[in-house]
Amino acid sequence: MRFLHISDTHLGYQQYNIKDRERDYFDVFQEAIDKAIEKNVDFIIHTGDFFHSSRPSNESILDGLYLIKKLKDHKIPMFVIPGNHDRGSGTRDRNALEILSEFGLRLLNSDFVEYNGVNIFGLKYISPIHFKRSIILKDILYNLYEKATDKNNFNILMLHLEFAPVFSSSELQTISDIPFEYDYVGIGHYHQRQEPIKEEGRYVVYPGSTEYTQFNEKSYIEKGCYLVEVGGKNIEKIEFVPLNARKFLSYSIDYSEIDKFLEDMEKDLNNLNLNKKPILSLNINTQENISNKDILRILESKNLADEFLHIKIFVNQNKRDISDDTTSSNTESFSAVEKLKEVVDDEELRIKLEEIFKMAESYENVKDLEEFIKHHPEMFEI
Protein backbone atom coordinates (compact mmCIF):
# COMPACT_ATOMS: atom_id res chain seq x y z
CA MET A 1 0.00 0.00 0.00
CA ARG A 2 1.29 3.46 -0.84
CA PHE A 3 0.00 6.96 -0.35
CA LEU A 4 1.08 10.54 -1.10
CA HIS A 5 1.23 13.12 1.67
CA ILE A 6 0.72 16.73 0.56
CA SER A 7 -0.04 19.88 2.52
CA ASP A 8 -0.57 23.65 2.46
CA THR A 9 -1.34 24.03 -1.23
CA HIS A 10 -3.05 27.43 -0.68
CA LEU A 11 -5.00 27.16 -3.91
CA GLY A 12 -6.19 30.55 -5.15
CA TYR A 13 -3.46 32.64 -3.49
CA GLN A 14 -2.81 35.58 -5.83
CA GLN A 15 0.41 36.61 -4.11
CA TYR A 16 1.47 40.24 -4.72
CA ASN A 17 -1.75 40.58 -6.76
CA ILE A 18 0.04 38.79 -9.60
CA LYS A 19 -2.11 36.41 -11.61
CA ASP A 20 0.93 34.27 -12.48
CA ARG A 21 1.41 33.55 -8.78
CA GLU A 22 -2.17 32.28 -8.46
CA ARG A 23 -1.50 29.92 -11.36
CA ASP A 24 1.75 28.79 -9.71
CA TYR A 25 -0.20 27.40 -6.75
CA PHE A 26 -2.53 25.52 -9.09
CA ASP A 27 0.26 24.23 -11.33
CA VAL A 28 2.32 22.78 -8.49
CA PHE A 29 -0.80 21.22 -6.91
CA GLN A 30 -1.64 19.62 -10.24
CA GLU A 31 1.94 18.39 -10.53
CA ALA A 32 1.55 16.63 -7.17
CA ILE A 33 -1.70 15.03 -8.40
CA ASP A 34 0.08 13.86 -11.55
CA LYS A 35 2.87 12.37 -9.40
CA ALA A 36 0.26 10.46 -7.39
CA ILE A 37 -1.24 9.06 -10.60
CA GLU A 38 2.21 8.22 -11.99
CA LYS A 39 3.22 6.44 -8.77
CA ASN A 40 -0.09 4.54 -8.73
CA VAL A 41 -0.86 5.47 -5.11
CA ASP A 42 -3.85 4.05 -3.28
CA PHE A 43 -4.86 7.43 -1.84
CA ILE A 44 -3.66 10.94 -0.95
CA ILE A 45 -3.72 12.67 2.42
CA HIS A 46 -3.76 16.49 2.55
CA THR A 47 -3.00 18.04 5.95
CA GLY A 48 -4.75 21.38 5.62
CA ASP A 49 -4.85 24.76 3.89
CA PHE A 50 -6.16 23.28 0.67
CA PHE A 51 -7.36 26.79 -0.25
CA HIS A 52 -5.77 30.07 0.75
CA SER A 53 -9.11 31.51 1.83
CA SER A 54 -12.26 30.08 3.37
CA ARG A 55 -14.09 32.03 0.66
CA PRO A 56 -12.04 31.36 -2.48
CA SER A 57 -12.98 32.72 -5.87
CA ASN A 58 -15.25 30.73 -8.17
CA GLU A 59 -12.22 30.11 -10.38
CA SER A 60 -10.32 28.56 -7.45
CA ILE A 61 -13.24 26.31 -6.58
CA LEU A 62 -13.42 25.18 -10.21
CA ASP A 63 -9.67 24.47 -10.11
CA GLY A 64 -10.24 22.34 -7.02
CA LEU A 65 -13.10 20.50 -8.73
CA TYR A 66 -10.89 19.84 -11.75
CA LEU A 67 -8.19 18.25 -9.56
CA ILE A 68 -10.70 16.15 -7.62
CA LYS A 69 -12.25 14.91 -10.88
CA LYS A 70 -8.80 14.05 -12.22
CA LEU A 71 -8.18 11.87 -9.16
CA LYS A 72 -11.67 10.40 -9.32
CA ASP A 73 -11.06 9.32 -12.93
CA HIS A 74 -8.08 7.32 -11.64
CA LYS A 75 -9.97 6.04 -8.57
CA ILE A 76 -7.62 7.79 -6.12
CA PRO A 77 -9.40 9.36 -3.14
CA MET A 78 -8.00 12.41 -1.38
CA PHE A 79 -8.54 12.76 2.37
CA VAL A 80 -8.35 16.36 3.62
CA ILE A 81 -8.57 18.18 6.95
CA PRO A 82 -9.42 21.90 7.21
CA GLY A 83 -6.47 24.17 7.98
CA ASN A 84 -6.68 27.64 9.49
CA HIS A 85 -7.06 29.18 6.01
CA ASP A 86 -9.89 26.78 5.12
CA ARG A 87 -12.14 27.62 8.04
CA GLY A 88 -15.45 29.41 7.53
CA SER A 89 -16.22 32.52 9.58
CA GLY A 90 -19.32 31.14 11.24
CA THR A 91 -21.76 28.24 11.58
CA ARG A 92 -23.91 29.58 8.74
CA ASP A 93 -21.04 29.43 6.28
CA ARG A 94 -20.32 26.42 4.10
CA ASN A 95 -16.64 26.49 3.38
CA ALA A 96 -15.27 25.51 0.00
CA LEU A 97 -14.02 22.12 1.22
CA GLU A 98 -17.59 21.14 2.09
CA ILE A 99 -18.63 22.03 -1.45
CA LEU A 100 -15.82 19.86 -2.90
CA SER A 101 -16.80 17.00 -0.58
CA GLU A 102 -20.03 16.67 -2.59
CA PHE A 103 -17.91 15.89 -5.65
CA GLY A 104 -15.59 13.28 -4.16
CA LEU A 105 -13.22 15.03 -1.74
CA ARG A 106 -13.06 13.05 1.53
CA LEU A 107 -13.29 15.72 4.24
CA LEU A 108 -12.38 14.80 7.83
CA ASN A 109 -13.10 17.45 10.47
CA SER A 110 -12.70 15.35 13.58
CA ASP A 111 -13.40 11.99 12.09
CA PHE A 112 -12.20 8.51 11.30
CA VAL A 113 -12.54 6.43 8.15
CA GLU A 114 -11.30 2.95 7.29
CA TYR A 115 -10.07 2.66 3.73
CA ASN A 116 -8.70 -0.58 2.26
CA GLY A 117 -7.47 -1.83 5.61
CA VAL A 118 -6.00 1.51 6.73
CA ASN A 119 -7.38 3.68 9.52
CA ILE A 120 -7.28 7.37 8.57
CA PHE A 121 -7.96 9.91 11.33
CA GLY A 122 -8.29 13.66 10.83
CA LEU A 123 -8.55 16.62 13.18
CA LYS A 124 -9.31 20.08 11.83
CA TYR A 125 -7.27 23.15 12.81
CA ILE A 126 -7.78 24.34 16.37
CA SER A 127 -6.47 27.74 17.46
CA PRO A 128 -3.60 27.54 20.01
CA ILE A 129 -5.55 29.69 22.44
CA HIS A 130 -8.12 26.93 22.91
CA PHE A 131 -5.45 24.51 24.10
CA LYS A 132 -4.29 27.05 26.68
CA ARG A 133 -7.82 27.49 28.01
CA SER A 134 -9.48 24.12 28.30
CA ILE A 135 -8.75 21.66 25.51
CA ILE A 136 -6.31 18.80 26.08
CA LEU A 137 -5.06 17.55 22.72
CA LYS A 138 -4.05 14.10 23.97
CA ASP A 139 -7.60 13.43 25.20
CA ILE A 140 -9.06 14.48 21.84
CA LEU A 141 -6.68 12.20 19.96
CA TYR A 142 -7.32 9.23 22.26
CA ASN A 143 -11.06 9.66 21.79
CA LEU A 144 -10.55 9.88 18.05
CA TYR A 145 -8.47 6.70 18.05
CA GLU A 146 -11.19 4.84 19.95
CA LYS A 147 -13.52 5.31 16.96
CA ALA A 148 -11.52 2.74 14.98
CA THR A 149 -13.14 -0.68 14.78
CA ASP A 150 -9.92 -2.53 13.92
CA LYS A 151 -6.97 -1.15 15.87
CA ASN A 152 -4.60 -3.60 14.16
CA ASN A 153 -4.81 -1.64 10.91
CA PHE A 154 -2.10 0.85 9.98
CA ASN A 155 -3.13 4.12 11.66
CA ILE A 156 -2.64 7.50 9.95
CA LEU A 157 -3.29 10.76 11.82
CA MET A 158 -3.68 14.08 9.97
CA LEU A 159 -3.13 17.33 11.91
CA HIS A 160 -2.82 21.04 11.15
CA LEU A 161 -1.49 22.37 14.45
CA GLU A 162 1.43 24.22 15.98
CA PHE A 163 4.00 21.98 17.67
CA ALA A 164 7.31 22.86 19.28
CA PRO A 165 10.08 23.17 18.26
CA VAL A 166 9.07 24.19 14.72
CA PHE A 167 6.73 26.73 16.36
CA SER A 168 8.89 28.06 19.16
CA SER A 169 6.01 29.63 21.10
CA SER A 170 3.86 26.48 21.12
CA GLU A 171 3.28 24.42 24.26
CA LEU A 172 2.32 21.33 22.26
CA GLN A 173 4.86 18.53 21.77
CA THR A 174 4.48 15.70 19.28
CA ILE A 175 6.13 13.17 21.56
CA SER A 176 3.99 13.91 24.63
CA ASP A 177 0.69 15.15 23.15
CA ILE A 178 0.18 12.63 20.32
CA PRO A 179 -0.56 9.03 21.39
CA PHE A 180 1.85 6.44 20.02
CA GLU A 181 -1.06 4.34 18.79
CA TYR A 182 -0.79 6.36 15.57
CA ASP A 183 1.78 4.84 13.19
CA TYR A 184 2.09 7.83 10.85
CA VAL A 185 1.48 11.43 11.95
CA GLY A 186 1.21 13.88 9.05
CA ILE A 187 1.31 17.53 10.09
CA GLY A 188 0.53 20.63 8.06
CA HIS A 189 0.65 24.36 8.89
CA TYR A 190 4.45 24.66 8.99
CA HIS A 191 5.59 25.65 5.50
CA GLN A 192 9.24 24.65 5.84
CA ARG A 193 9.66 20.98 4.92
CA GLN A 194 11.31 18.77 7.56
CA GLU A 195 13.01 15.42 7.22
CA PRO A 196 10.70 12.67 8.55
CA ILE A 197 11.18 12.15 12.29
CA LYS A 198 11.09 8.66 13.79
CA GLU A 199 9.74 8.61 17.35
CA GLU A 200 9.71 5.23 19.09
CA GLY A 201 8.60 3.36 15.97
CA ARG A 202 6.16 5.86 14.46
CA TYR A 203 6.89 8.65 11.99
CA VAL A 204 6.09 12.35 12.26
CA VAL A 205 6.17 14.06 8.86
CA TYR A 206 6.02 17.75 7.89
CA PRO A 207 5.88 17.99 4.07
CA GLY A 208 5.76 21.81 4.13
CA SER A 209 3.90 23.94 1.60
CA THR A 210 3.98 23.15 -2.10
CA GLU A 211 4.92 26.74 -3.02
CA TYR A 212 7.07 29.41 -1.36
CA THR A 213 4.87 31.87 0.50
CA GLN A 214 7.39 33.99 2.43
CA PHE A 215 10.85 35.39 1.76
CA ASN A 216 12.04 34.04 5.11
CA GLU A 217 11.60 30.44 3.93
CA LYS A 218 14.88 28.70 3.18
CA SER A 219 14.98 28.67 -0.60
CA TYR A 220 17.60 25.91 -0.72
CA ILE A 221 15.07 23.46 0.76
CA GLU A 222 13.04 22.04 -2.12
CA LYS A 223 9.26 22.10 -2.14
CA GLY A 224 7.38 18.87 -2.62
CA CYS A 225 5.47 16.04 -0.97
CA TYR A 226 6.16 12.59 0.48
CA LEU A 227 5.49 9.18 -1.05
CA VAL A 228 4.99 6.57 1.67
CA GLU A 229 5.02 2.80 1.25
CA VAL A 230 3.51 0.63 3.98
CA GLY A 231 3.63 -3.09 4.62
CA GLY A 232 1.30 -4.26 7.38
CA LYS A 233 2.00 -2.07 10.42
CA ASN A 234 5.41 -0.98 9.16
CA ILE A 235 6.54 1.92 7.01
CA GLU A 236 8.88 0.42 4.44
CA LYS A 237 9.87 3.61 2.65
CA ILE A 238 9.36 7.39 2.79
CA GLU A 239 10.51 9.17 -0.35
CA PHE A 240 10.58 12.93 -0.93
CA VAL A 241 9.00 13.90 -4.27
CA PRO A 242 10.18 17.37 -5.42
CA LEU A 243 7.79 19.78 -7.15
CA ASN A 244 8.55 22.59 -9.58
CA ALA A 245 7.87 25.60 -7.34
CA ARG A 246 8.89 29.08 -8.42
CA LYS A 247 12.16 30.05 -6.73
CA PHE A 248 12.51 32.84 -4.19
CA LEU A 249 15.96 34.47 -4.14
CA SER A 250 16.80 36.53 -1.09
CA TYR A 251 19.98 38.62 -0.56
CA SER A 252 21.25 41.08 2.01
CA ILE A 253 24.20 43.29 0.94
CA ASP A 254 25.95 46.58 1.59
CA TYR A 255 25.25 49.24 -1.01
CA SER A 256 28.98 49.79 -1.52
CA GLU A 257 29.20 46.23 -2.95
CA ILE A 258 26.19 46.41 -5.26
CA ASP A 259 28.10 46.40 -8.57
CA LYS A 260 30.04 43.26 -7.66
CA PHE A 261 26.88 41.66 -6.28
CA LEU A 262 24.91 42.29 -9.48
CA GLU A 263 27.68 40.74 -11.58
CA ASP A 264 27.60 37.63 -9.38
CA MET A 265 23.80 37.48 -9.43
CA GLU A 266 23.76 37.61 -13.23
CA LYS A 267 26.11 34.63 -13.30
CA ASP A 268 23.93 32.79 -10.78
CA LEU A 269 20.81 33.31 -12.90
CA ASN A 270 22.58 31.84 -15.91
CA ASN A 271 23.76 28.81 -13.91
CA LEU A 272 20.43 28.04 -12.23
CA ASN A 273 18.65 27.14 -15.50
CA LEU A 274 15.28 28.25 -14.11
CA ASN A 275 12.17 27.56 -16.18
CA LYS A 276 10.19 30.20 -14.28
CA LYS A 277 11.26 33.74 -13.50
CA PRO A 278 12.21 33.81 -9.78
CA ILE A 279 11.04 36.31 -7.17
CA LEU A 280 13.73 38.59 -5.72
CA SER A 281 14.10 40.04 -2.25
CA LEU A 282 16.96 42.52 -1.97
CA ASN A 283 17.92 43.95 1.42
CA ILE A 284 20.29 46.93 1.05
CA ASN A 285 22.26 48.30 4.01
CA THR A 286 23.58 51.81 3.47
CA GLN A 287 24.37 55.16 5.05
CA GLU A 288 23.63 57.01 1.83
CA ASN A 289 20.40 58.76 0.95
CA ILE A 290 19.00 56.31 -1.60
CA SER A 291 15.54 54.88 -2.20
CA ASN A 292 13.95 51.69 -3.48
CA LYS A 293 13.45 53.39 -6.84
CA ASP A 294 17.18 54.14 -7.05
CA ILE A 295 17.99 50.45 -6.58
CA LEU A 296 15.34 49.44 -9.11
CA ARG A 297 16.85 51.82 -11.67
CA ILE A 298 20.25 50.19 -11.12
CA LEU A 299 18.72 46.76 -11.76
CA GLU A 300 17.09 48.09 -14.92
CA SER A 301 20.37 49.61 -16.14
CA LYS A 302 21.97 46.14 -15.85
CA ASN A 303 19.03 44.54 -17.71
CA LEU A 304 18.27 42.47 -14.60
CA ALA A 305 14.82 43.76 -13.60
CA ASP A 306 13.08 41.75 -16.34
CA GLU A 307 14.73 38.55 -15.11
CA PHE A 308 12.33 38.43 -12.13
CA LEU A 309 8.57 38.03 -11.83
CA HIS A 310 8.48 40.29 -8.78
CA ILE A 311 11.06 42.34 -6.88
CA LYS A 312 10.91 43.50 -3.27
CA ILE A 313 13.58 45.99 -2.19
CA PHE A 314 14.26 47.01 1.41
CA VAL A 315 16.66 49.91 2.02
CA ASN A 316 18.03 50.08 5.56
CA GLN A 317 19.62 53.48 6.07
CA ASN A 318 21.95 53.10 9.04
CA LYS A 319 21.90 56.76 9.98
CA ARG A 320 21.51 57.89 13.56
CA ASP A 321 20.68 61.32 14.96
CA ILE A 322 19.75 62.80 18.32
CA SER A 323 16.06 62.13 17.79
CA ASP A 324 16.79 58.39 17.87
CA ASP A 325 17.30 58.60 21.63
CA THR A 326 13.96 60.27 22.22
CA THR A 327 11.78 58.05 20.06
CA SER A 328 8.25 57.85 21.44
CA SER A 329 6.46 54.56 22.07
CA ASN A 330 3.99 55.50 19.31
CA THR A 331 6.85 55.75 16.82
CA GLU A 332 8.18 52.36 17.92
CA SER A 333 4.74 50.84 17.46
CA PHE A 334 4.45 52.44 14.03
CA SER A 335 7.84 50.98 13.09
CA ALA A 336 6.69 47.53 14.17
CA VAL A 337 3.61 47.82 11.97
CA GLU A 338 5.72 49.05 9.07
CA LYS A 339 8.11 46.13 9.57
CA LEU A 340 5.20 43.72 9.11
CA LYS A 341 4.82 44.97 5.56
CA GLU A 342 8.37 43.85 4.88
CA VAL A 343 8.33 40.39 6.45
CA VAL A 344 4.69 39.20 6.19
CA ASP A 345 3.50 38.65 2.62
CA ASP A 346 0.12 37.19 3.57
CA GLU A 347 -2.18 40.22 3.51
CA GLU A 348 -4.88 38.66 5.70
CA LEU A 349 -2.35 37.72 8.37
CA ARG A 350 -0.63 41.11 8.24
CA ILE A 351 -3.93 42.99 8.69
CA LYS A 352 -4.76 40.80 11.69
CA LEU A 353 -1.35 41.43 13.29
CA GLU A 354 -1.66 45.17 12.66
CA GLU A 355 -5.01 45.15 14.47
CA ILE A 356 -3.40 43.43 17.45
CA PHE A 357 -0.50 45.92 17.58
CA LYS A 358 -2.82 48.92 17.37
CA MET A 359 -5.14 47.50 20.02
CA ALA A 360 -2.21 46.89 22.42
CA GLU A 361 -0.92 50.42 21.82
CA SER A 362 -4.24 51.92 23.00
CA TYR A 363 -3.81 50.60 26.57
CA GLU A 364 -1.77 52.59 29.09
CA ASN A 365 -1.00 49.71 31.46
CA VAL A 366 -0.49 45.96 31.25
CA LYS A 367 -3.31 45.16 33.69
CA ASP A 368 -5.98 46.70 31.45
CA LEU A 369 -4.50 44.97 28.41
CA GLU A 370 -4.55 41.59 30.18
CA GLU A 371 -8.20 42.13 31.13
CA PHE A 372 -9.09 42.85 27.50
CA ILE A 373 -7.27 39.73 26.30
CA LYS A 374 -9.05 37.63 28.93
CA HIS A 375 -12.48 38.62 27.63
CA HIS A 376 -11.62 38.77 23.90
CA PRO A 377 -9.61 35.61 23.09
CA GLU A 378 -11.04 35.60 19.56
CA MET A 379 -8.90 38.67 18.81
CA PHE A 380 -5.84 36.41 18.77
CA GLU A 381 -7.21 33.56 16.69
CA ILE A 382 -4.99 33.75 13.61
Automatic annotation (TrEMBL):
Q: Which organism is it from?
A: Sulfurihydrogenibium yellowstonense SS-5
Q: Which GO terms describe its molecular function?
A: endonuclease activity; exonuclease activity; metal ion binding
Q: Which GO terms describe its biological process?
A: double-strand break repair
Pfam families referenced in this protein's UniProt entry, alphabetically: Metallophos
| Family matches, as PANTHER family | COMPONENT OF ATP-DEPENDENT DSDNA EXONUCLEASE (PTHR30337), NUCLEASE SBCCD SUBUNIT D (PTHR30337:SF0)
Enumerate the CDD domains for this protein.
MPP_Mre11_N
Keyword ATP-binding recorded:
no
Calcineurin-like phosphoesterase domain residues are: 1-192
- By its UniProt entry, which HAMAP family does this protein fall under? Mre11
Write the record's keywords in alphabetical order, separated by commas.
DNA damage, DNA repair, Endonuclease, Exonuclease, Hydrolase, Manganese, Metal-binding, Nuclease
- The highest taxon in the source lineage is Bacteria
Q: What is this protein called?
A: Metallophosphoesterase
